[in-house]
Amino acid sequence: MANYDLTPRIAPNLDRHLVFPLLEFLQERGLYPDELILKFKIELLNNTNMVDYAMDIHKSLYHTEDVPQDMVERRVEVVARLKALEEAAAPLITFLQNAKAVQELRADQHYNLQMLSERHQIGPEQIEALYQYAKFQFECGNYSGASDYLYQYRALCTDSERSLSALWGKLAAEILMQNWDLAQEELNQLKDIIDSKNFPTPLNQVQSRIWLMHWSLFIFFNHDNGRTQIIDLFNQDKYLNAIQTNAPHLLRYLATAFIVNKRRRPQFKDFIKVVQQEQHSFEDPITEFLACVYVKYDFDGAQKKMKECEEVILNDPFLGKRVVESNFSTVPLRDEFLENARLFIFETYCRIHQRIDMGVLAEKLNLNYEEAERWIVNLIRTSKLDAKIDSKTGTVIMEPTHPNVYEQLIDHTKALSGRTYKLVSQLMEHAQ
Amino acid sequence: MASKFWNQGGDSETEEEESDYEQEDNGIAAAEEDKAGGSRYLHSESDSDDSDGEKRVVRSAKDKRFEEMSATVDQMKNAMKINDWVSLQESFDKINKQLEKVMRVTESEKVPNLYIRALVMLEDFLNQAMANKEAKKKMSSSNAKALNSMKQKLKKNNKQYEDLINKSRENPVSEGDDDDEEEEEDDDEFEDDVVQHEKKEPVEDEPKDDEKEDWVQQLNKKDRLMEKQFKDPSQITWETVDKKFKEIVAARGRKGTGRIELVEQLTFLTRVAKTPAQKLEILFSVISVQFDVNPGLSGHMPINVWKKCVQNMLLVLDILTQHQNILVDDTVEPDENETQKGADFKGTIRIWGNLAAFLERIDVEFFKSLQCIDPHTREYIERLRDEPLFFVLAQNVQEYLEQIGDYKSAAKVALRRVELVYYKPQEVYDAMGKLAEQAENEDSGETESGEEPKMDTSRALPAFVVTPELVSRKPTFPQNSRTLMDILVSLIYKYGDERTKARAMLCDIYHHAILDEFSTSRDLVLMSHLQDSVQHMDISTQILFNRAMAQLGLCAFRAGLITEGHGCLSELYLGGRVKELLAQGVSQSRYHEKTPEQERLERRRQMPYHMHINLELLEAVHLICAMLLEVPNMAANSHDARRKVISKTLRRLLEVSERQTFTGPPENVRDHVMAATRALSKGDFQKAFDVIKSLDVWRLFRDRENVLEMLRVKIKEEALRTYLFTYSSSYDSLNLDQLATMFDLSDAQTHSIVSKMMITEELHASWDQPSRCMIFHDVEHTRLQALAFQLTEKLSVLAESNERATEARIGGGGLDTLPPRRRDGQDYAAAASAGGSKWQDNLSYSQGRLGSSGGRSGYNTGRAMGPGQTGYSRDRGGQSRGAGGYSTGYQSTRYQDTAYGGTGRSYQTGSIARGSHMDGSTRMVSLNRGVRA
Q1: Tens-place pLDDT, residues A194-246
Q2: Which of B759, B827, B915 faces A412 most closely, judged by CB atoms?
Q3: Sign of the CA dihedral running B668, B671, B675, B676
Q4: Which of A65, B241, B442, B672 could disulfide-link to B666, CB 3.0 to 4.6 Å?
Q5: Region Disordered: what ranges (chain B) (predicted)?
Q6: What is the enclosing helix (H) or strand (E) of A323?
Q7: Do A423 and B806 touch (CB under 8 A)?
């Protein structure tokens, strides 16, 4: 199943620290040998300041108590640098920790800066130091500290570039702390900036969007409302273009979101076209499933894909999130997905059939006969389906859905009189 | 005697490296010989006449001219005797005119001695007259005036013939000799001339080294003079060379200066150049003079000159790589004595020149020669063999430019290389690589055999600046043409200017299409937005664009993407001017004659034969695509005359063929497709396929079997669809198995096709799963119902236009008043139609350009007739065009709509017309009612 694993394609678009959760998940799923993952973890940590963690992993990987010399040296270096940065940022931090002093700050940035430099002798250097310090904190894995400092830095910073990168840092920190609501806010802010900012080249903008989308995966699949929002974000023209140009693998998530989200019909049709068009650049059981149902009308194929989809979902770090209830863990998304996918197949299937054998239907839906019957009865009862069950022959008979010609005619013309009235009244108004 | 001299030259010098012109020289010599021989013969005849005592002379035109000239000389002599400057001046003008005639008749570059002698005589007399102040004073005013103007004219005129005059002065003997004969034997004058040379030649050459002899003999008089000047290597200084160089360059472009001669002189100078910089400077002049060899725009540079030119360029590169401190620049005028700095000079030396421009010119000449040469001759193939030669040069120039950091020019050069490769499929590319290797081997063999004369010349006069062959003479080809393209193209994208980039992009698209990478190719088209901007580009780029689109269409067809293929090709065929659009021949237009000027322009943009896209194949593919789309479409809408037409071309052809009383067996591509169309519209897939298969253009496809197999499947599918459309009304139910066997399709395929038709509501039927039957619903409207629907439709159009009219007047209202449900439904239609018109836009490149955009706009307005779609479609189009830059704004939705727009649209409008007015979404609601509520 490792061939559907998207981690290698997603990872380059994430921050180093954000890759950890993915690796953790992979380790848990056991798709790759443990050692391999541990090695990658160390590699990942090499460029961060989380030296202690790296040492731990090293120990567990090689089952030794020895730690390579360069790690020890690096640790010393990191500590020294931390000290230096702390000192540099100290005045500002003490100021910020003083609740009374903080109250003096106002919404006006100029005023704040002036006030700081006059009363507390805090100039641009200290503010810059705060940024560096926050960054360092983040590198060390102290995300909450980093998040706080970055928040305050942004209030004081005047350089828009810096402010932007502070925002990215803040988003990463919030994601890593799993503060989904806050992260969501940062995400929206970031999105607005990216959309409105002038980038040196369009390519940079696309790249930023792709990063944003990757990072947002963490939020959307953990936030309650995420599944609607992911469609809102990804399905925007600009973002969809970016996906198609540079990151077609994101289609998987969008497709999943569409399947579990029933209320998005209009966009859904367009999305099917996108899927079809991108077939050559990205293929995935989930998108193939959609192609089977909506392009090829190959229901047997769709059913096979559905099984594959299940695997894919379970192995995907974002989709396969587990919820543990007492001692019983489930993957809520999987169940939801399967239920909806079944409905998709059934829906399309019904549209082109007049009479369906229940046995065949049960098979198509991956249910047994009894379950299938109950399922259909439920659908009919909730009036989602105009059909009757013929229990003698064991078939479902669809009600013909052809609207009456006269009804259609009336439908057509009904609006006309209203429109004409409105037109006339407009004219009258105008004439007066 | 004459022949001896020339033969001598010809024999011993054939291998001589510098003797590229010698062949021509030989040709001229032969001509002269002929004439000389002829006159001698004539003369002997007249001799025999003489013995009869009668002087009856038969003269050729040439002789006549000479006679005229000598008559004028006589006049001049008479005038001199009486010191009449006025008539002398007249005679002088006359003799100059005659000179032209003589030159034309003899077809030689050589000025007759008679003329030179007259000049000498005049000059002497003039000097004499000027010296004699007293006599001058006595002259009448008009005479004195004539004298002065004569002085000026003569000075100017004589400059051209300076060398010859000097020589003539040096050889008064011959003059004296001739003096007497002249009067009697005018007609022999020319021959005499030649004879004199021969006579003189050995005399002159004798003192020199024997080795030198052959080399010297080859040069013509002027060179010999130069040779004399530079006889002693030790005496040659930079100054003398520079002076001579300037002199020769100054003569360039002047009347009476032989172009080829100029080249030779300069080539000689490169040998004696003192410093590398000087050599370089002279070489640049040689190259640009070589470009001048062929005047006028229509012809092409002689091939041997071209080759020589390439060699010179390589030499230039050798020097440049050897002396890294020499910079080539065409923006600054270098110092006078910049080239004096020797090889050991460390600072930078600037030389005027532009390598990229030279290279481009060479490429243009190569292209032109291929345009001019008849492609069915061996000459053409021979010429094509020179491709690697150019390729290696371009490669070296590009490397050098990259090395010195001039990436902009490097990109230009890279484009030239791209344009050499892009149309070659892998096989041809491999062949080119092989050819280059072969040529290399042959070359080395040749140089070995040709070593000797080379040695001779170097012994005769060692070039002062010896440059080793530093630059590789062998092109390196990456294994894969794609790799090469990628390297070059990415360089261009990085550094090239707009036009270069656009062209490179088009070549890239073309190449991808050749390699069957449709999706990459299509993405490139869409990403680059070339279809929007190509109308503003130059014509050759537009042609390239058309070519790329044609190739893309073929590629789509091979990949089985019929709609896309048709989309790419249909526009090319709309005006019936494919040949013109692809620059593969001139098509006659019935309605307006072309002016010769236009015709000439057109001829100049023709593609060389080896780059052509086979037109028959293209037509076959286009018509087959059109057939596959149009036949089911016609069947589906047989009742409605004003239904959407997918391919106008096919419809028109079909009409024509239906009008025929008898249809004979198919002969050309069109007949075949028409026969297939007739079969297909009856659902007879086998016959349709057989007819199509019998076309012999299929052999042009590489994987012919696969393509035909694909075609077979497609024809079957469309036959099935057509059959269902046509005969569904006769069935109440139809078994899947029966249908599958009827059309030789698998159950799954049949099921999928029919299901698709049901979903899109093209077919009013549904499956009865237990019995594997399709049940047809009787939803055909009665005549009355259909009319009622038409009426409602018209009413809504009316309301719509009313609203729009009011809106225009008073503003506001309009679409806001639409009930929401209706708007929803329209959105789809609008999207589809927007897609359609956008695609239309996409493809309107050729049309708009040719100024016949009438069709397009007409089409658009036609679409606008649909109920209330205009406003939406306009919005939509604007929206999706807004975003995106050159490389990123990948307008997927756009293509999206287009790809499906074709079919989707027709379904859409179809359902509207039937009045069901419910598209997919409204039907889907039936399942989702609960959810929505």
Answers
A1: 888 777 787 888 888 889 899 888 888 888 777 788 888 888 888 888 888 88
A2: B915
A3: positive
A4: B672
A5: 1-63, 162-214, 437-456, 809-896
A6: strand A323-325
A7: yes
